Every structure is written in C-alpha cells, then in structure tokens.
Amino acid sequence: MDISINASFLPQDDPEAALAFYRDLLGFELRKDVGYNGLRWLTVGPADQPDTSIVLHPPGVDPGITEDERRVISEMMAKGTYAGILLATPDLAATFDKLQAGDAEIVQEPTDQPYGIRDCAVRDPAGNMIRIQEKS
C-alpha cells in the first residue's frame, strides 16, 4: 500500500488571526483561501512539503451538527481542549524563541520529556494545542 498524509484539519474562528499565526509566525505558505457563505477555509503548509497541508476550517459547519454540538465545540475551543497537532523542527530553541517573541500563548517551554523527546507547547489563536518536538 502507498498511503500518505495529505491534510489534517484544525478549527479556526478568526481567519486573519490564523493566517498571522500559521503563515507569518510559523512560516507556512498559504495554499488556498476559500470563502463560502461568509466563512473561510484556509489551507497552509510548509513550503518544502507541498503534499502535506493543514486545513483551517470554520468550527461546527459539518452537516448534521446540532446547535448544542456547536456550542460544545465553541466551549472546548475556548478552553483549548478541542483539537491539536504535533509539529517537528530541527531547532526547537530557535522556534520557541520566535513563537515567544511573536506573542504566541505559551503552554510549555522546551522540556526534555521522560519518553525521550524534547518539545514545547503553544496554543494557536483558536485555542488549538500545537506541540512542537525537536527532530533528532
């Protein structure tokens, strides 16, 4: 089998703030910016990985989602417990310094984890947990 990861999905509730974080702070390229019914879907990804993307989508727009479910999604996003992603970098210290200087919400400074990796954690503007580990 030849299967690869093409896209992951994270909710965003402010497209401009999401662009400022993912494009301007993390350095991802904007690949698509699609509007529909007053909402925006953004597709971003690392320039050197054209086949891997993150789709930043409006929360709770999936068909069949009830108003109660939309409310729960919004509450979980506000607490930072709804979604997350794990990224990797060869220079965690420099990446963390850039995030900190860019006013990202810091959850955890770079730490050596007992399971053998060094990582840090921040939240994006929508509250998604972004963990970044150092490549070995």
Automatic annotation (TrEMBL):
Q: Which domain of life is it from?
A: Bacteria
**Membrane-spanning parts:** none
Q: What is this protein called?
A: VOC family protein
Q: Which InterPro entries match?
A: Glyas_Bleomycin-R_OHBP_Dase, Glyas_Fos-R_dOase_dom, VOC_core
Q: Which organism is it from?
A: Saccharopolyspora mangrovi
Q: Which residues form the VOC domain?
A: 4-135
Family matches, as CDD domains: VOC_like
The cross-references to PROSITE patterns, in alphabetical order and at most eight, read: VOC
